[in-house]
Batch of 4 targets.
Target 1
Amino acid sequence: MKFIVKLFPEITIKSPPVRKRFIKQLRKNIRKIIKRADEHIDVTGLWDYIEVTTSSNDAVVVAEVGDLLSHIPGVCYWLQVADYPIADMDDILEKALAVYTEELSGKTFCVRCQRSGKHSFSSVDVERYIGGGLNQKTKAAGVSLSNPDITVRIEIKQDRYFLIKQRREGLGGYPLGTQEPVLSLISGGFDSTVSSFLTMKRGIRTHFCFFNLGGHAHELAVKEVAYYLWSRFGSSHAVRFVTVPFESVVHEILENVDNAQMGVVLKRMMLRAATDIAKEMGLTALVTGEAVAQVASQTLTNLAVIDSVTDHLVLRPLATMDKQDIINLAAKIGTEQFVHNIPEYCAVVSKKPTTCARQDRIAAKEAKFDFGILKEAVNNRKIVFVNDIIADDLTREHVKVVSDLGKDDVVVDIRHPDEENIKPLIIPDRELLHIPFYQLLTKFSELDKQKHYVLYCEKGVMSQLHAMHLKDEGYENVSVYKPAVISNTKGAF
């Protein structure tokens, strides 16, 4: 099956050398990601679009490739097409009848043609001829140019033409890796997850920095959402997850800083620590989820005082966004439910926080702070690649992984509903629950505590992360199911 990938429009207005570099990077990213679904995928790049050809027309493979293409930065939209060499209009009509006859039955339609190259006919000629032929030779309800049930799309490129079977939107943005990398301060909340997504969408390789205020359970919860963001939108590039133990820093602030100044001081300490880590990693910019005036510490005056402790550029993708817009975007990209399962661990909450911090007053308060504690926190940081976080955490929390199910084991499919629809899990004569990973922590408490549950996801990564999280919450009746072969209704995978 062939897919035509259309470039994000801003790529097409770049200078020729930059445009070629961006297309080359996008082609490389697509090839790396799509190999998950099809090891023998063929990706070729042209000046204004990229062709992706699968080695199989299996419905499961085609659906998975389409889903992956929809989440790759740099893709404006993609078309699933049937590809033919140009002969004449009768040939186009014959091929269109083969593709659309069944779909048009009882439906109104119109034909839209885009054409490039020199031909003896115009785009309007194609639309009229093919539209008339389809109307006569199918059981369509008729032609409707203004509000059709189905639009038959044809693209003609030089000596080839494409009949478009499906069109889906992509992420847009720039190909990941075309911009310099950054370090994103992620807490697991709405703001930091959405800001991290937006930098990834803009083509920025985004590493994660987490300041741990709530112990291992807090860390695991944030790792879950970081892994999700990376695997869904950025897995073409390896990124690091940095954990900085910050409980002692918070304690020092509580002991030595006036209540009204604590929020600003905490943010300054985080920026100092993140700057030191970014320098060691060779990163020149930091990312935060702050939006102007959303909370007291985020007034323009306070942000200026916070930023004064770093010589690094601080990017704030959400600076002018409304909170509801941020929440809506979190829901759209799939991080909203994660947030509901991550409690607010920060103990530095001022009763009457300052909204107009003064540099001299903050500096005077920080003079009492033992910066050796901050340095120790940075020195004790832990850095792992996001794709290796399972191996790292299993050294602290063992989770049993089984390939064969016990007699009374209940399988819990925790995959995203879209993934589940593409590859439905079928295990005959077995109780099977469907609880998406983002609802698992909430729903698990409602399950029968006398039963044993085995979590399933295709790669086994999210299931192990969530199993560890559940064990941290005190649930011992959980393990992970990682079979050698699984069956589904559309074929084997």
Target 2
Amino acid sequence: MTAVAGTTWNRADVRAMRRALQAAARGPLVDPNPRVGAVIADAAGSVVGVGWHRGSGTRHAEVDALAKAGERARGGTAYVTLEPCDHVGRTGPCSRALIDAGLARVVYAQVDPNPKAAGGARTLAAAGLRVDAGLFEADAAALNAAWSAAMELGRPVVTWKFAASLDGRSAAADGTSQWITGAAARSDVHARRALCGAIVVGTGTVLADDPRLTVRDAAGRLQGAQPLRVVVGHRDLPAGARVLDEAAPTVQLRTHDPAAVLADLHGRGIRQVWLEGGPRVAAAFLRAGLVDEVLAYVAPVLLGSGPTAVGDLGVGTLAAAYRLDLTDADVLGSAEAGFDVRVRLRPRVRRAGERPVGDAHLTGRSQEAS
């Protein structure tokens, strides 16, 4: 732990914030709002209320904890994993609720990166409460990594996922692509899909592969809340396309502009996007500088021909190559079922003043999208 601005944390502070972090972890991971936990201690230091945010539209963690504490909160301390909000949305500002409850002190872990909600600490201090920040800040930020990044970027975080042969082919010459990778890799994909608010593909993927774009178990059964299915492009979709079934919500965005796609989704409360489109949609997002992470599933297979995993990036020479940094690599599978390699990478930060090299049409085949 690192004390902020000279703050010295005592054992009661540490215990209470740990309990607030545990409460925060009970909230939904995929939601327009962050996961937040709160603990209220009375003037003697005894915990009298524990609360957490249960998702968009429900009461915030501080209000939840205050409801349980009642009058025992007066003169006490609130421990909150995120700076109390200072704006009116679906609910009122938590800063005002804490003031009205008669608290003497507020301790929070992470500064709120959302410009619309930030400022609660100033309001609390102006009302005469003691405000301390930074206790378990890194732990609190880790609870909402994608949400925090989306707030700072002003758009959803984008993970581009693809599956390919060892020579970079997403399908064979005849168009067949299921399955390049094995069952373990596909199971891993579904587990990671479930952590995102939306799955994005182009119209070409839907027309070519008729994918379901849902989160399923090994037996094909739907699992949990489903991400929003997003189809990008101008072409009409067949009435019988599987992305139009009742398994999950679907929206078609009739544009070829990746920035416009992300702006629309951000407005819908989507904080993390799973990009599964074909080589052209991938190239469009890469060229626009709108891919934050690349997740590649590479099979020990050689095809020699067929569609590549990514389309034209406008690279004419090796010096202009689109370079990425390796985050980690893991082997998935078994000797009996076969192995694949999952490689996670992050695009390198562009040089100062360097601009994305353009745009591309969002069409083309998927990489084992289903």
Target 3
Amino acid sequence: METVAPFKEVVDEIKDAGGDPFKLCFQCGLCDVVCPWNRVRPFSMRKIIRQAAFGLTEIDGEDIWRCTTCGNCVSQCPRGVDQIQLGVSIRRVATEYEVFPASVRSARSARASIISEGNPLQGERGKRADWAKDLPVKTFAEGMEVLYFVGCYLSYDPRMKKVAVATVDILNRAGVDFGILGASESCCGESIRKTGSEEVFRRLAKDNIKTFIDHGVKKIVVSSPHCYHTFKNEYPEFMVNFEVVHFAQYLYELVQAGRLALTGEYAGRVAYHDPCYLGRHNGVYDEPRAVLQMIPGLELIEMTDARKNSLCCGGGGGRIWMDTPKQERFSDLRLKQAREAGAQVLATCCPYCITNFEESRLNLEYDEVLEVRDITEIVREVI
């Protein structure tokens, strides 16, 4: 058993940030009750906190890597314990000592790809904007209305490229003066930070901030809630503040301003899934639903575990790059909830959620009974 005792660096770091979970936590176990892992297998965040208090954390085990940082435990803890901060701090120790279980090794490959190419998907940096080569998309220049920060998955993943194409089509139809950074764009760093690679995150953040400043960026529109969260809440640690808007919010702005008309019909029952990093972490619940409700013919329905209680897809905290057995995927549970609610389409606005839901759709053989779509793709059909 590999241990680091007494985890002084972890404890000191958390105290410096203004909290001490070892004193605050009275082991009530509510974090375990609300954790999505306990729907598919036993897992105890309470136990991890208890072990860390005595320097007994097994950093070579699987458990410290299970947390998806969904925020359910943090939002409902009666004592204000920040379990995410504690878990990430422990991962930083494991990363420093390069102690990783087999299931995390794919995340290490993602880290290497981020360092070398600026993305976790082993895509060549020079090909980051290839998805847009036949589209009317400009390179961002100072004075443009917004920077569209595409993100890694929408730049390289075949399924998510469709969302990027739909996004620029909408922006063009709305008359938005926008541009992208192309090969100058790098991963936002949110997920790699959650896996404990703080140094890599800080390097990415500084590089991105320099690029934004050099290009004269003022307003950033993003497709990923993870980019949204880190630009909005974590980049200010570097003494900068940009106006950051998620595309679901921007769609609502465009419709309200009369720049986008949702005139076409979209017949069908649609269930909306709240991504953890858009909903629970940032309180954005209403705008995506409002956009869907304005579409003629669309029937918006709610699933079990909606809004602040939304069920995590399983992709946060770097889990999107780690191996998860089929029988332990939260995304399977979410698709079953969509079917139970009578949905024909499961809509969301997060590349991690869509990636996991598409895999579960195949795993559950739902490919003919349930469609997974980004809100952007739905809106594109009706304008």
Target 4
Amino acid sequence: MFAGTGSDVGKSIVAAAFCRIFRQDGYHPAPFKAQNMALNSYATPDGLEIGRAQAVQAEAAGIPCHTDMNPLLLKPQSDHTSQVVLNGRPLGNKDAYDYWRPLPKGRRACRSLEPVGPPPLRGGREGFDFRAEVCSAFDRLAARYNPIVMEGAGSIAEINLKDRDLVNMSMAQHAKADVILVGDIDRGGVFASVYGSIALQSPEDRKLIKGIIINKFRGDMRLFDEGRRMLEDICGVPVLGVIPYYKDIYIDEEDSVALEQKRRQLAEGKVNVAVVLLRHISNYTDFDTLERDPRVNLFYTNNTSDIQQADIIILPGTKATLDDLMELRRNGCAQAILRAHRKGKMVVGICGGYQMMGQTVEDPDGIEGSIMSLPGLGLLPIHTTMTPEKTTRQVTFMFEGQACQGYEIHQGISDTAEAILQTDHCIGTYIHGFLDNTPVIEHLLKDKAVSIHSEQSLADFKDEQYNKLADHVRKHVDIDKIYKILTND
């Protein structure tokens, strides 16, 4: 298990690296994260939903993703509520306090939920034993793959939540996992965070922590030699590696924290693509391929001036379509998008952004919250109604006469049978991964820049990046020592 001193320390990327390393070394690894909180999700081949990070890690391991790799997914809908997805199916919406509140004596991690969507596999209003569910998922996965590359969540030192922990040390105890603690030196305070994370563990849990990896190091590595020895002395745990910060390896990221580093502005000599920065933005990895195109300057913004000046405007997916649509009207972005469209600028909507581009969005049953109905931007001739049922599937579609791939994850039904709806200067679709396909990108850029066609497919590009990541980690982590830990040598 790769556990962390906090969120965004690099656990997901390190786990992906070891999925590829173990595969390269002849093993048959699989990723596992018992509980994930993220808006970036992915559709499995059998039409169920998991966190994007585990789908990426499965890709690095060279295997199809499965809900057993991430049996419990929390998708925030507001500051206080999340949709709970168990074994790939949405169960209901839950208030954060109710989800994390102390359990009655004698009960395990069993939570009652307000049902949403089709009946779940088992349980009901009386609740679900989430601990049993995630442990069963791990056991099924461990029976098929070896080794299991586990990932913790946030910090392992949230002692106020320890009795309700499903994903960190309690899961490590169930799996009898060797735990490697990942600390982020780039944010500062790495000595205190690593030492404190270990010191706050119970004696039983502390025994599981077999090593430390320092991540995101910048500068001359020799300057940390003394720090490495000091960490080992005060923690009594070996430092297995110090991984330098990298900029030339492209791996899909899951946490919205990464968006803070992506915000840029208009650039001359490029096709400027403005992704409208929504409060509940989801699946922003939809734009990674377009962002890497050398002809494109892609940036995230809710600045009305930049939106109007961009060549292409993208409305991304969202976990709260009506709430974000209301915010677009309040902050002036809706008007800026309409003015830009009237001037001939291309507007593209993905999933929730597609719904916003229609005539109306209705939520008569309050699936998303208290807003029952709003007019859309009026750019596409569709009407959308929010429904309890959730569409989750991988899809193949035709664009410009070529077969393309993507996936759908959305609530709500629009009154059109078209997977992709195009009108004058507008494209709307429910398909995530739409912009990962070369025919789509070339269509968007054909009148705006010289065509540059890459012979490398997206699959080949990703495979190359996983290999580069594995090489980077091998160079800076003692892989032999990790194998000795795993074999209790």
